[in-house]
Amino acid sequence: MNVKEAKKKGIEELKKANIEEPIIKIRMILSFVLNKTKEFIMAHEEYNLNEEEEKEFFDGIEKLRNNIPIEYITHNKEFMKLNFYVNEDVLIPREDTEILVEEIIDEYKNKDVKILDLCTGSGCIGISLKKYMANANVSASDISGNALKVAKLNAKNNNVEINFILSDMFKNIKEKDFDIIVSNPPYIKTEVIKTLNKDVQNEPSLALDGGEDGLFFYKKIIKEAYGFLKNYGMIFLEIGYDQKQNLINIVKEDKRYKLVKVKTDLENNDRVVIIRKG
Ligand SMILES: C[S@@+](CC[C@H](N)C(=O)[O-])C[C@H]1O[C@@H](n2cnc3c(N)ncnc32)[C@H](O)[C@@H]1O
């Protein structure tokens, strides 16, 4: 079977299963299976797949038909112009999260800051911060050992040094005096998870489930971060589009912090909350 025939068959299969963007996805799978660029795939329709490649291609199609996200098939997601390996143990990094990272880089680019990335998953936040802020000292933690394996691989592939810690939130965090604690924690209400797109439901529930009210991790972070931050240290949190008021209330009730700013994403949804200790 050549590329032209594989494309035709693959697109047909995906259309039958109502999978969105079939052409783009077929190109991505072919590029991954053949280890060639998308430009090559477009320009060489006569190129023949060997038996093994053909099998891998149709395995990929079958996964897409079962709502496995394309990134788990090609094992790659670009974030902050860096490449991240991803598998079923980690959330696929989202564009919205770049807002959180960019906000920190804008503010602290050349400063010697000590950063903790809680709930690091693939490591995308901590690794990008270290990559664009050479002077930063970055620790990153997660409760999932399998997620940390992925994050360590991503740090190695992107040539950055990160101190990774296996920890249930702050439990095993030994260092104090962080300038910045950043987190994109799980924030979906438990009940809402089953209403999400099927491909999102195939991401780890550990990465999605924010408890009954979706606020479990925000409450915990705000309560406990105080002891791990320098005076006037900052907390940067990604939030769901409808959680701004909840966060404002949590910060107000606590009284040890000041709400500095809420930033919106490109679609004008509230996306990042910035809080200062003291
Ligand atoms: C929404 S994902 C974020 C991943 C990554 N930071 C990103 O932005 O793509 C949340 C992460 O929190 C981790 N997590 C869940 N419960 C945790 C806990 N109790 N302590 C630490 N990490 C936890 C999950 O394993 C998952 O990797």
The sequence of SSEs as H and E is HHHHHEEHEHEHEEHHHHEHEE
The N- to C-terminal Cα distance equals 65 Å
CATH topology of the largest domain: Rossmann fold
Biggest sheet details: 7 strands, mixed
How many H/I helical runs? 13
Low-pLDDT sequence parts: none
Mean pLDDT: 97
What would you call the quaternary organization? single chain
Determine the strand fraction and express it as a percent band.
Answer: 15-25%
What's the total count of β strands?
9
Q: How would you describe this protein?
A:
This protein has helices at 3-16, 22-34, 38-43, 51-65, 70-74, 96-108, 124-132, 145-157, 190-193, 198-201, 205-208, 216-225, 244-254; strands spanning 77-79, 82-84, 114-118, 137-142, 163-166, 178-183, 229-238, 257-264, 270-277. By secondary structure, it is α/β, with parallel strands linked by helices. It has two domains: 3-66, Helicase, Ruva Protein, domain 3 (Orthogonal Bundle), CATH 1.10.8; 80-277, Vaccinia Virus protein VP39 (Rossmann fold), CATH 3.40.50. The strands form two sheets. It has a seven-stranded mixed sheet, sandwiched between helices. The chain has a two-stranded antiparallel sheet with strand order 1-2. Helix 1 (3-16) crosses helix 2 (22-34). The radius of gyration is 21 Å and the shape is elongated. Bound molecules: S-adenosylmethionine. The site of S-adenosylmethionine has 21 residues, from helix 7 and helix 11. Residues 90-91, 93, 97, 119-122, 124-125, 142-144, 147, 168-169, 184-186, 206-207 line the site of S-adenosylmethionine (SAM).
